[in-house]
Amino acid sequence: MEDRKVQNGTIYDLAVRLNNGGVQSMGEYRGKVLLIVNVASKCGFTPQYGDLEQIYRRLREQGLEILGFPCDQFGHQEPGPDAEIKEFCDRNYGVSFPLFAKIEVNGSREDPLYTFLKHKKGGLFTRAIKWNFTKFLISRQGGVIGRYSPGTAPAKLVKMIEEELAKQV
């Protein structure tokens, strides 16, 4: 993604790869509150899948979408193919929120979605994603509200999510 598009575009201008090989426009999420998370199956934070799923089941009817993007850039904690990742999430956590194709969140092959997110909300001392389960909260209008560390429990974000859900488009 060129720098100008990152600076002037919106999250809805982007497309992401589905875990079944298809492509989906982020525009399909227009009007929804999004929680975007880079996830991994063999990480110390992996139990957050269960917390994320509970929040999703509780708030999806109000307009929340949680989007999981598997990533293997940190400690080789997501080594399997997309189908194996989905099966793991289904079997162990009953994940019903969308899981996308495995991506890179840093470096020369980083996904344009993460280029956009990091441009809008840099981290502490650097824009780079430091580990799995970094979370980005997106408003109904597509604005990046916040970036939260892997150690931030999903339950700590519920109040902010509910406040965003209460706002009109």
Throw out a few tags for this protein.
single chain; 169 residues; 5 helices; 6 strands; globular
List the helices and strands and how they pair.
Layout: H1 3-8, E1 15-17, E2 23-25, E3 33-39, H2 48-59, E4 64-70, H3 82-93, H4 112-120, E5 135-138, E6 144-148, H5 158-166
Parallel strand pairs: 3-4
Antiparallel strand pairs: 1-2, 3-5, 5-6
Q: Give the biggest beta sheet.
A: 4 strands, mixed
**pLDDT below 50 for ≥5 consecutive residues: which ranges?**
none
Strand percent estimate: 15-25%
Globally, the shape reads globular
Terminal CA distance: 27 Å
Q: Structural class given helices, strands, pairing?
A: alpha+beta
Which sequence of strands runs across the widest sheet?
Answer: 4-3-5-6
What sequence of helices (H) and strands (E) makes up the elements? HEEEHEHHEEH
Number of strands: 6
Count of helical stretches: 5
> What value does the Rg take, in angstroms?
15 Å
Percent helix: 25-40%
Average pLDDT confidence is: 91
